[in-house]
Amino acid sequence: MKDSNGLVFSGSVSRRTLMLGAAAGAVTLAMPNILRAADKPTLVTSIRSLSNPYHAVWKTGAEAYAKWAGLEHVTLVSEGNSEKGIADIKAMLAKTNGNMVLSSDPNDTPDARPIVEACAKAGAYVVTQWNKPADLHPKDFNPNYVSHIEFDGIASGKTIAEILFKTIGGKGGIVALGGLISTTAAIERKKGLDAALAANPDIKLLDFQVANWKSTEAFDLMGNLLTRFGDDIKGIWAANDDMGSGALEALRAENLAGKVPIVGVDGIKTAVDAVRTGEFACTVTSDPLWQGGMGLAIGYNAKIGKFDPAKEPPEHREFYGKAVLISHDNVEEYYKTNVESKPEIDWNDLWGRVTGAIRA
Amino acid sequence: MTIQTEPLKSVSDIERTTLMTFLPGRIATMLGGRRWRRLAPLAVLVVLCILITIANPNFIELRNLVRLANSAAVPLTLAMGLTFIILMGSIDLSVEGTLSVAAMVVVLLAANDSNGNDYGWWAVLAAIASGTIMGLISGLVQTMLRIPSFMATLGMWFIGLGLSVYMLGGSAIRLNDASIRDLALHRFLGLPLAVWVAIGAFALAAVIQYYTRLGRHILAIGGDEDVTKLSGVNVTRVRIAAFALAGFFFGIAGVLAAAQLGQSHAVIGDGRLFAAVTAVVVGGTALTGGEGGVVNTLIGVLIVTVLANGMILLGISPYIQQTVQGLMIIAAVALSLDRVRLKIVK
Questions:
Q1: Which of these CATH numbers, 1.10.357.10, 3.40.50.2300, 3.60.15.10, 3.50.50.60, describes A3-151+287-321?
Q2: Contact B174 A270 (CB under 8 A)
Q3: pTM above the 0.90 mark?
Q4: How much is the ipTM here?
Q5: Which residues in chain A have their CB less than 8 angstroms from residue B271's CB?
Q6: Which chain B residues have a beta carbon less than 8 Å from that of A228?
């Protein structure tokens, strides 16, 4: 696992490191509070699993921030089990007497409420990301529920569509591969595509098909679409990179790779490599490294009184983060700073990536 | 070569013939009875092809037929293995797990972007061997521990899946070995090599079913296991061999899938179990065992592939494609099985 797949694995840890970390954490927790510099809060990250590259990178970002700030950091993994996720957080609250900052990607939408309520009760500071019920608001739990961060699926779908349209010269036919019909991300990204299509009447959507986020399904689907539309297909819009890479292999089997540009969302390594070779026109990523570190940074700064959450504007309490676009123009630089080496993030710039308040 | 046994119809059978079983039976009789019914899947395939061609002549373009063959390659290889198991009256649910283990092995041992291995075609052999071993274990668990094939192979499915997740670290790893990727990218006589491999798998399966003792014993077990046992067949050995054989075919399919996608991830097999079972059943092989065979399965795979291709060509909305598939399964099974003769419908 050398630098060649650094992006995907930049956050991965060997099992030994993980065990050492866990053991070290356990030992630390067993110490009396006095030995742990009682005035400094513990940083806690709660995520779904370490077996997917996304959350592995998230953890790296959280650790990078903790190191930068000189604080203790603990990672809790729910393994997709909401009960376990909430119970672990409550256990941490008890251990730290509420002297902690939590950055959480709740396993499921309803989980956010008990997590936030437990933190508020114990006096801990919490930042949630991606999942929360629509009627749960940070402003109702001042000052403990600091912020909630999401990424705008409509904007992502629209941005990549616009780049695709530009790449094919503003006119011609495209096909679109959507995600699992019922998921929010699939619905939002398609809305973004529709918005871009409405603004570009010369682009014709030949067909919209669903490949359920999977490269295998996209592979078969793309072959069939090539039969139906043949050379009329000038570009391919995919709701995630995995489907985009399946479509790319279907093109490759027909000697069309690189001739029909593809766009996707997520910034997985296959896609970044394909952007470098010109087979993908672009991909966007929510930058999990930033998410992992900044979730803690925002909570910690509120905790130590750098800012008062109650006085912050709404777009700092519930906001869309800025997705990072990886296209032909910046892919070499992105590769150098994110794949070949660890990127530098300014952890003092709390609101630099705020793009606006979350739609009600 | 299936041995048709015509049970004597008892009075109670006729009494049992209600309207529901009467109607399809009557239609089949009008069409000429059982002989014709056996050709029903083929008729469905031909009718489908004609209808799709009328709607969109692109369908019979050579380029599209090549694509059809290409997307049928993996399902056909999988379904070859599964046919033997279903002929025995058992089921193998480990399709996805075994396939993902084989794909994982070939990618991790051949040149890839995660480790320094570069064993070339040895990786392919290792992948097929690992598939065979998985099948062998299923067979041993089933016969030695006396666990029904449904449960034994369900367990193997998750064991295989877990193994792949662990080895691949939850991510997708790319296959960089050019000669293995040529299975999907290189063409011989206009067809990708993967298609030739699938045709080879079909030929092998046909030889095994029609010209070997193992093939006949498998069919006999499906027909009546007790009678087979009394005739002196070592049923245990045949079962273990059949599951290992199925694993062998799943292993080949795993290699083809990895070569086509140019990568392997743990969920590379997602949805393939359902597709394979559908193809076998639609082709006319009975889930109760003892009836059907690899030729039926070939037609079943083609029906499923042609339908998927046709629905895209006809521009059927993705929101109702699954519904069409479901209707087709029911229709095909209703046409191809002699429901009147079924005493019990479970």
A1: 3.40.50.2300
A2: yes
A3: no
A4: 0.72
A5: 214, 216-217
A6: 56, 58, 312-313, 315
